[in-house]
Amino acid sequence: LLLPERRGCYNPDVKVAEIGEFGLIHLLSDMVSRSPLVAGAVREELLVGIGDDATAWQWPAGKQLATVDTMVQDVHFTLDTISWEELGWKALAVSLSDIAAMGGQARYALISLSLPDETEVDDVSRLYQGMLKLAGAFRVALAGGDTCRSPLVTITVSVIGEAGDGHLLLRSGAEPTDLVAVTGYLGSAAAGLAMLQEKLALDVELSGYLKESFRLPCPRLTEGRRLVEFGIKTAIDISDGLIVDLRHIAEMSRVGARIEADRLPIEPRVRDYFGKRALELALTGGEDYELLFTASASRIKGLKQAISIPITVIGEIIPGEAGLVSVINGQGKPLRVTGIGWEHFSR
Amino acid sequence: LLLPERRGCYNPDVKVAEIGEFGLIHLLSDMVSRSPLVAGAVREELLVGIGDDATAWQWPAGKQLATVDTMVQDVHFTLDTISWEELGWKALAVSLSDIAAMGGQARYALISLSLPDETEVDDVSRLYQGMLKLAGAFRVALAGGDTCRSPLVTITVSVIGEAGDGHLLLRSGAEPTDLVAVTGYLGSAAAGLAMLQEKLALDVELSGYLKESFRLPCPRLTEGRRLVEFGIKTAIDISDGLIVDLRHIAEMSRVGARIEADRLPIEPRVRDYFGKRALELALTGGEDYELLFTASASRIKGLKQAISIPITVIGEIIPGEAGLVSVINGQGKPLRVTGIGWEHFSR
């Protein structure tokens, strides 16, 4: 990763594709933190700025959270692999998942919708129906937004949430004695996308499960708050892929991490159908929107008894090179992983 | 304007271009307000939902505001009429202006940036420099965001603000005894765009003024708060054009409005150069981001003495057909206005 040492260090010809999404975020975050006027305002009450799942600040009545995510047609989705209603659900779910990964409660969503002129009104209506279903389930109010014309469907969802007086789940709290754990199953969303793109012929039941995993992710808001209650401090949601997202934790916490491939929770039918490929989907697939977290064995044990979805320990935090994530097999031998997951501008 | 009587009343073939931006907002707002689960959550503390300049809710420590605006390349801007730095300023200004139009103070901004792979890193850096300049001037923190790949540059700025215990400036408070007034000059931004698009050869000073009006709008945050202090209750920012935006006030307040063309504050050099066209620019041009407000003569008189930029009374609120805005000349004769201003999906 090419990190900017200082502002203006780029050759005018360097394109964003060359430094990648994370390089760009680093550059912008650096610019913002060096800006004296803004830094002054920020220091007063900003708790978490650019670089975690959501922004957080201290308000007299408690902690507040805000996050934004954009989905662009033909980049994040294609209209032949998802319906408008599912797209609405998913666009909101992605932002709610960021609030979940901070241990917060989501309250308000603002929707910015860019649409081609020829979009059918009924499709927009269905998009909102999908959003409203998910919003209703978590008591989130669709409270405002913006609509405009664009050649491509683009949906930006901003969510404002709260975390009361509790602590926040950050990316930076992992310690070398922690275990690494996840909620739910890994790789199901990526398997669903593979099925749709490759037109795989699966039985109705598995096909239904995979479509739902890919199109209707469930933001782990309830689980995120449980993590806080059990004293867990470190979490991220799996959007880009297990390895990339664990690397974010490892970088921010200045530690390494080791995953045991055999322990990854892969849905049995996915493992049966996809065979060896299932491991790759689970390691690098992304879009599962499960919570990836680190904590002591005893805290995880307590959490498991209090939560209704599977919690699986998949590895451990280790001292060593910050940000280094390795994967080992059942014999403790390192696995070579091809591709690490999703990053914009540099696929 | 074709307003939906109820959900699902659209023929499947109706396109968003046929109902227009405001028809679409009506439809979505209607869907949201009918959604029982969300409506329950909303009623607790939501003060202003879809349909005003910003969303507002009651928080234990005071009122909070949130707004979002998107700028799409080749729809809202072209890269040959604005520099990257100016684009950053303007994208943030547009959202700050919404907070100003509610009488609030802006606190946090989240930036979602969609960029083509070949975008130069230095250009993105300049975009942020422009944002940081404006953010610094109003002590707004650029606190988070999202970056992704897209064929078109798209910038979505969400701003979270506060309004303490004061009242909010709404679109719905205009009364038949009110006068209509604006801050600053009208039509300068549209004149600037016309100059750039039509490659008009103007002297350096006027050209500089017009470019700045179009590219570097100043959000009237200070003035918005002054309006609140002087007991003014009704305002909107002029983004789409004077007539369209006054119509929003008239519709929401269930009143009519009459503008006197001769009273419009047009910058003298713009009037000299553009002649008769200056009136059209002032009435329908948009993007001035001045505040348009209604209040009694005495409140406006008080405000004028307390504010450093020009405040001009341009007309009055009248009883009669809700949403009807007319323009009269110096002899009291109605003027026919061609075009009303900017609306997405139905130009």
Calculate the terminal CA-CA distance of chain A, rounded to whole Å: 14 Å
Q: How would you spell out the order of helices and strands of chain A?
A: HHEEEHEHEEEHHHEHEHHEHEE
Low-confidence stretches of chain A: 1-10
Major beta sheet of chain A, specifics? 6 strands, mixed
Structural class of chain A: alpha+beta
Count of alpha/pi helices of chain A: 11
Per the principal axes of the C-alpha atoms, what is the gross shape of chain A? globular
Query: What do the pLDDT scores of chain A average to?
Result: 91
Report the portion of residues of chain A in β strands: 15-25%
Helix % of chain A is: 25-40%
Measured by residues with Cβ under 8 Å of the partner chain's Cβ, the largest interface is: A-B, 86 and 86 residues
Give the oligomeric state of the chains in this entry, treating copies of one chain as homo and distinct chains as hetero.
Answer: homodimer
Q: What is the spatial order of strands in the main beta sheet of chain A?
A: 1-2-3-6-4-5
Give the radius of gyration of chain A. Answer: 20 Å
Number of strands of chain A: 12
